[in-house]
Write a structure and sequence with these properties.
The complex is a heterodimer.
Chain A (H helix, E strand, L loop, with lengths): L2 E6 L7 H17 L2 E7 L4 H8 L4 E6 L8 H15 L3 E4 L3 H13 L3 E6 L1 E5 L2 E8 L4 E7 L4 E5 L15 E5 L8 E7 L13 E5 L6 H14 L2 E4 L1 H5 L20 E5 L5 H4 L7 E6 L12 E4 L2 H16 L1
Parallel strand pairs in A: 1-2, 1-4, 2-3, 3-10, 4-9, 5-9, 12-13, 12-14, 14-15, 15-16
Antiparallel strand pairs in A: 6-7, 7-8
Helix pairs in contact in A: 3-4, 5-8
Chain B lengths: L1 E5 L2 E3 L10 E2 L4 E2 L6 E3 L1 H17 L2 E8 L4 H9 L4 E6 L8 H15 L4 E5 L10 H9 L3 E11 L2 E8 L2 E8 L2 E5 L12 H7 L5 E4 L14 E7 L8 E2 L5 H18 L1
Parallel strand pairs in B: 1-6, 1-8, 6-7, 7-13, 8-12, 9-12
Antiparallel strand pairs in B: 2-5, 3-4, 9-10, 10-11
Chain lengths: ~325, ~260
């Protein structure tokens, strides 16, 4: 029996990311002629469990009395235990930070191999090949996942969504766990008091080093409000202290997947573009027609942003109202 | 507190895309005129180790697995006054998989002695795999916390702050522990003094070969293998919005943005 496992973590959301993760697992299972097994670690709302069932051949809810919210060592131990019994060919996780930290450790415990930031998976002569960016997005690497299981976290938001079918029966399993008290998450607080997470935003207005300073971000914020957008920034702008690092987009910041990314005074260094490679449409405002950002744009305007932002905001305010 | 920091030397990630080439035979980037630098997240990790030592004392050891040139990254760490540096020379495999790196580092660390805290950059600026920290924790049977940007220590209790999707988390842990480090405003790497750079060249450095660590050829077979590496073709043709006056241009640009927003 060939099993491809999707791992969902405690309190997961049934959102675009989860749909993309389930979709990629479904396609891989199909390519290998196997089953798609969804493993939900820990506590999940019944409505979400039922929603997921339509995309799974098997659905296992792995329960542990302490796993009401995510804890790294406990979640790892529970997932290892369930996955070991399934002997999967591959285990797919999402792009959230928890999944990212679990991936290599779960692979090691199961005697498999691991990789992250996977854009696509393919079956090539019975082995699983994983495609991912390398060198800050300047290159693309293909990895042969040589030992089983291949444990990967994928770019879920940019993957095609899963296809619904006959709902799988929900199997509930009580799982024993070991060595779980060595670390404990004792506090969680959200960074942004208002607004949406950048990762979930469908429109982002982002500013870079070409801006004039922190005040320019105020202008960008106003434009963002008009557009229903969140505000992002390049590393250079964050490092200059113009805006907090929680807004940073790029290889060392957040990886976003908006429908529209408006880059204002951002040159488009590859480390920045790595954070927006899943954006659907990129538009730019920049004084330099040769700025690398325009190579990634669908449309752009070569002007000083200072001449543009104000009138643009006014025009959009009236046309979108 | 005995702290170990893993340091990786990489090809300067800031080289512009137009100067970037890959070698289709070796499946790695062509060095060209690019310089070699210490991976930024390793520098953040080193900075955090130095701050910890200032707060609660202890010793810092830096370890690197790489070619001869990786000595430069370790010399820089010595210039920042780490207490010891160890280079494991990679004389066998050109671009080792993360699984191999973790196994080699684990063998080196065991030979160096016991550590309370191991700091690893969250990912590297070249391959960006982000696997080594987690794999190393498993090799050493250490608990691990990822994306850490703040650490405080009291006795054998460690409190960590880390960045997650939803914000900031506080994690409590006991030693021994491995943490992967991400960047924030507090761990911007300091610059070594010129005098300390001069002195670092004369400081002792432990250098081991893979054979010194008792690793067999089998240990150096990766669980993953790079089978292709290429520069992606950019298909996008930017439409530069034009117009007789700047007002016309802004009108046209606003219209395009409006059209996109209306489809959402």
């Amino acid at each position: 029996m060939i099993n491809i496992v999707s791992c969902l973590l405690p309190l997961f959301e049934f959102d675009r990311a989860t749909e993309g993760l389930l979709g990629e697992s479904q396609r891989l299972a199909k390519a290998l002629g196997g089953s798609h097994v969804v493993v939900i670690a820990g506590h999940a709302e019944d409505s979400k469990v039922s929603a997921v069932a339509e995309y799974a051949d098997r659905l296992i809810v792995a329960e542990h009395s302490d796993l009401t919210s995510y804890q790294p060592e406990l979640c790892l131990s529970v997932l290892r235990s369930v996955c070991a019994s399934l002997q999967p060919h591959a285990i797919l996780l999402g792009s959230d930070t928890y999944s990212q930290e679990l991936t290599p450790r779960l692979a090691h415990r199961l005697g498999g191999c691991s990789a992250g930031d996977i854009q696509s998976l393919a079956v090539v002569q019975d082995s699983i090949h994983a495609t991912r960016p390398a060198y800050g997005g300047k290159a693309v690497a293909v990895l042969d996942m040589k030992t089983s299981p291949a444990v990967v976290w994928v770019r879920d938001r940019s993957m095609e969504v899963a296809v619904a079918g006959e709902p799988a029966k929900i199997e509930r399993l009580q799982v024993e766990a070991e060595n779980i008290n060595t670390t404990k998450i004792v506090d969680r607080r959200s960074e942004e008091s208002s607004g949406q997470r950048l990762e979930d935003a469908s429109i982002i207005v982002s500013g870079g080093r070409g801006l004039d300073g922190p005040d320019s971000f105020e202008d960008l914020r106003q434009l963002a409000v008009t557009m229903g957008a969140e505000v992002g920034a390049s590393r250079a702008a964050c490092d200059s202290g113009w805006i907090t690092h929680s807004h940073q987009v790029g290889q060392t910041g957040k990886k976003v997947a908006p429908q529209l990314y408006l880059a204002v005074a951002i040159s488009g260094a590859s480390q920045h573009m790595m954070g927006v490679s899943d954006a659907k449409i990129i538009a730019a405002i920049n004084t330099d027609p040769d700025a690398p950002i325009f190579k990634h744009c669908q449309f752009g305007i070569v002007e000083d942003y200072k001449q543009i932002i104000g009138p643009l905001q006014e025009k959009l305010a009236s046309s979108l109202s | 507190m005995k702290i170990l920091v893993c340091v990786k030397q990489i090809l300067d990630p800031e080289i512009p895309p137009r100067d970037f080439q890959v070698d289709p035979q070796c499946l790695e980037a062509v060095r060209g005129s690019a310089s070699l630098v210490t991976n930024i997240f390793c520098e953040n990790a080193l900075e955090m180790a130095l701050q910890l030592r200032e707060q609660c004392g202890g010793e810092i050891t830096a370890i690197s697995f790489g070619s001869n040139s990786a000595e430069d990254s370790l010399r820089k760490a010595l210039a920042l006054k780490v207490d010891a540096a160890c280079l494991v020379l990679n004389d066998l495999t050109p671009h080792p998989a993360s699984s191999v790196v973790a196994r080699v580092l684990a063998a080196g660390i065991r030979k160096l002695g016991e550590f309370d805290l191991i700091l690893v950059g969250r990912e590297s600026g070249d391959w960006g795999a982000g696997q080594t920290g987690g794999l190393l924790a498993e090799e050493l049977h250490f608990p691990a916390v990822s994306f850490v940007d703040g650490i405080s220590v009291e006795g054998d209790s460690i409190t960590l702050q880390r960045q997650t999707d939803s914000g900031i988390e506080t994690v409590t842990a006991k030693t021994p522990l491995l943490a992967t480090i991400t960047n924030n405003d507090q761990n911007v790497p300091r610059i070594p003094k010129t005098r300390d750079i001069m002195k670092s060249g004369r400081k002792p450095m432990t250098t081991w070969s893979l054979a010194d660590l008792g690793l067999s050829a089998n240990d150096l077979v990766g669980t993953t293998e790079i089978v292709d590496l290429y520069i992606p073709e950019k298909q996008t043709n930017c439409e530069y919005i034009d117009g007789d006056t700047i007002n016309d241009k802004i009108d046209a640009f606003a219209k395009r943005i409006e059209d996109v927003i209306r489809t959402l």
